[in-house]
Amino acid sequence: MFNEIICFSQYFVNKQNVRSYSCVLKSNLLKKEDAVLHKHLFEDDSLVTDLTPEFNNILLKLKNNLRLKSKNDFRDIFTCDKLKSELQFVNKKDVFTDAWKCLNEIIPKEFYGHNKNFKIFHQLIEIVIYSMKYQHFNLIRYIEKWNFCTYPWKNLPQITSKQILYKIIKWIIQYILSPVICINFYVTTCKMDADENKLYFFWKHQWQSFYDKKIASLILTKTILKYDPFSMTKKMKNNYSLCRRKEINMLKKDIPKLSIILKPNNDCRPIVQYKNKLQTNAEKYRIKERLFFLKILTGKTNKKIEYEFGTLYAKWIELNKPKVYFVKTDLSNAFGSIDTNRLMKILQERHLSCQKSEKNAYAKKKLAQQCRDMIAELRKPIFIRSGSTVFEWKKGLVQGYKYSPALSDLYYTHLDEIYFKEHLEPARHQIKLFIRVVDDYLYITDSLEDANNFLKALSNYKNVNYEKTIVNFDHPNIKYSEEITFLGYTYNTMNWHVSRANSVFVGQMCYKIAFTSALSDPYKFLENRIGQSGIQVTCHIFNLVYNTEEMMWRHVFTTFCLSANKFCTIYAIICNKESMRNCLQVYKNRVTVKLTNSIVDTLMRFKPADTKFIYCINHFRYLSWLALSLCAKKTLKCTDMVPHINVEMAKSNCIFGKWNDHASQISKSGEVLKPAVKEVCRRTDFRVIFKTFYCLPNGFECFDHRIK
After folding, report:
1. What contacts 24+ positions apart, CB below 8 Å, involve 302-307?
2. Residues 68-104: pLDDT tens digits?
3. What average pLDDT does the segment 222-229 reach?
4. I need a surface site. Which of 60, 642, 678, 694 has the fewest CB within 10 A?
5. How far apart are CA 649 and CA 653, in angstroms?
6. 590: which DSSP letter?
7. Pairing mode, if any, of strands 382-386 and 498-500?
8. Angstrom distance (rounded) from CA 563 to CA 569
């Protein structure tokens, strides 16, 4: 389609097995007559017939240049020290510089026709190389800027010329730029920090060496075992008929690939990439039933941490605020460390326990069938593919397998009940909270002896990550900190204040946003990312129980800064100046009004009965526009909206500006619920707090298109 949203990074991300240009484009296409290449390029005979002689000549030059340049599979483009085998990131600036030089040698200058077009194409290639994981583009935005009033474009009808340009740009990126990248580099995401969508470039030979060592390590530890029927040599394959060999190759293609996700300190996590096959409704229902069965066996309640923590805080106050001890830890390789034989025994034991408590005969029969199916599923061999070699997964659960999270939860819940029996038992006159989410643990107690006993019990697991274990009391072998971060929240262990974890907003926001095909509707995309659906509003931070009023306002400001930074980042990447006013209206509706209402509603519902929360709605609105103003000033493509933002700020600035009659509380329909009171609007303590909000919180980084 001419107006489709395209993801260019899909052509060069995680392409480990692309070793030559013929893997991407058949070499005979460049040797055959022009019509064959034209058909491959345009995929539309009508566009081919519309080509002018001048354009045919340009495409002929492109073909000849490409054939000449690709003789060595583009391996002479980049300068690399082959003697260095240690895995290192490659600077994207160097990748872009050499890749752009290569494209200049392949694409004839006549293709552009104008210096403006040359700059547009240069900008597009730079954006593609610096793009995020599976970032989608609206290519039409760049085509609309193209100057078609110059040779060779002026000899074509404008609609046809746009279609031809669209096809050529897409083909160049897919069949020239992408092979240039993935033959020389391995491009992937890493778990180095919270920037989950950031792409890293590694030299192909360095990554292959690193990958081979990790595969060898998995073989050595007997985690995987080579599966000979699918890993035959050429001589062995010759013993089979051509039909059988094709059948084996087709079966191999369905086997999922084994990927390695890099973590800090050159550690890594093996993940199996299952293909997203279309499932029938019956298959979806069967998976859903099995997951529900595993949830029943696990027997865990879905209590949220904010409610558990709130109850614990009330007990802490009741017991006159005793010293409380926190232990935070996690398990390394949680899935891979699971003993599958023991898991099957646990599954059967807990199933029998459910059978005893179940009275309904039909439900008993259903549970028994689900148990048999799950045992059969666990006994099935799991095959994974590394290059052309097929392995059988022999130890632990595979990360990426649809049942692994639920089975892991069942396994560790059962072991927790054994190892931490005394820590799980509720105590009437003692503060005690045990939480495990997947492989992350948090234990809170008012007994130092109990905390140390928990650490001893933890040693029953052989895969405890002591480097990530943190306590708030002295221990000879474990890190000390008064602040504990767990599941996106930071807990001050001295005064029990809770705030957002820095990882939520620190760094470039563009790497935390998934630019999916949903951006075909920019306004809807913006709405869903900056409003409550994209910004978490919970009673864990928006309450006046264990957070002070000053802290609450800081959380409000940080939340608005998070929304504003997302807004400016998305606007800078996918929007244009013509849409500025509409985008600001989206911000006003989703953040200034709806997000504010959600925060106020949460605060009013979760405040102590004897606490009065006196506010003016303009205080929230002012902070929402102030946050946007701070972000817009630091985001190059958003500076034009600052005057419009200042107008909105002035309207809601009742705390510092000229005071006028207005509503301090309004209904969802816009009706006045309570008139403003000057003494409330201009509260001295509020003014002191708000004066500290004239810079973004520490760690915030606004989008910079030049950032590499």
Report:
1. 304/538, 305/435, 305/486, 305/487, 305/489, 305/540, 306/538, 306/539, 306/540
2. 998 889 988 998 877 677 888 999 999 999 999 999 9
3. 84
4. 694
5. 6
6. I
7. unpaired
8. 10
**What's the distance, Cα to Cα, between the start and end of the chain in Å?**
32
Whose tokens are 């609450």? That residue is: 552
Strand-pair category, 185-188 with 200-203: antiparallel
Q: Can you tell me the distance from the alpha carbon of 632 to that of 624, in angstroms, rounded to the nearest whole number?
A: 12
User: C-alpha distances in angstroms, 335 versus 33, 370, 377, 463?
Assistant: 54, 22, 16, 11
* 560 compared with 608, residue with greater pLDDT: 560
Cα four-point dihedral sign 576, 579, 581, 585:
negative
Among 299, 300, 325, which Cα is nearest to 312's? Answer: 325
Give the model's pLDDT for residue 485. 93
Which overall architecture, per CATH, does domain 284-377+403-486 show? 2-Layer Sandwich (3.30)
Return the CATH number of the domain spanning residue range 6-202.
Answer: 1.10.132.70
Q: Is it true that 6-202 and 284-377+403-486 share their CATH fold?
A: no
Helix residue spans in 420-548 (DSSP H): 421-424, 448-458, 522-530
- Dihedral sign, CA of 30, 34, 35, 41? positive
Give 674's pLDDT tier (boundaries 50, 70, 90). confident
Give the CA angle between residues 398, 401, 402 to the nearest 5°. Answer: 150
The pair phi, psi for residue 480, each rounded to 5°, is -110, 140
Mean pLDDT comparison of 46-50, 280-284, 549-553, highest-scoring range: 549-553
Look up residue 65 and give its two tokens.
């240049």
The length of the chain in residues reads: 708
From the options 1.10.260.40, 1.10.357.90, 3.30.300.20, 3.40.50.720, give the CATH code of 500-701. Answer: 1.10.357.90
Distance CA 562, CA 583 (A): 17
Note the pLDDT tens digit of each residue in 534-583.
Answer: 788 888 899 888 888 899 999 999 999 999 999 999 999 988 888 899 99
The residues with which 6 forms a beta bridge, in sequence order, are 137
Strands 489-492 and 483-486: antiparallel
Reported as half-sphere exposure (CB side, CA atoms, 13 A), residue 246 has a value of 3
> Which pTM does this prediction carry?
0.88
Banded model confidence at residue 129, pLDDT cuts 50, 70, 90: very high
